[in-house]
Amino acid sequence: MITRSNLVEQLREYQIRSKHDWASASFFSSTSNLGSSRVDVASFVIWELVILAFLVFSAVALYFMHLTRAIILLCITLLLLLCMKITKQVRLARKKRRRMLLPLSM
Description:
By secondary structure, this protein is mainly α. Helix content is about 70%, strand content about 0%. It has a domain of about 70 residues. The protein is built from 3 helices and no strands.
């Protein structure tokens, strides 16, 4: 049952979420993350730093002729990149579902 207090609370949350217009300086992202919170931006920056570190470690391993270690590190990097993309899609879907909870008149 929709009550007035629930509507007010949902509207307040929606206004707070829409106030944060942070654009992630994401190297791996194809689109900017408008409407994402600081936590989202911080987590994706950490993901990207870890992925970049694995890429550097694999290049160093290749330099020292450790081909198997370089391939393993590249596979881990690709898995992390895939996890980051899946996490991003799940969060966007969750945000869209939360927006749909608001009545159309709001």
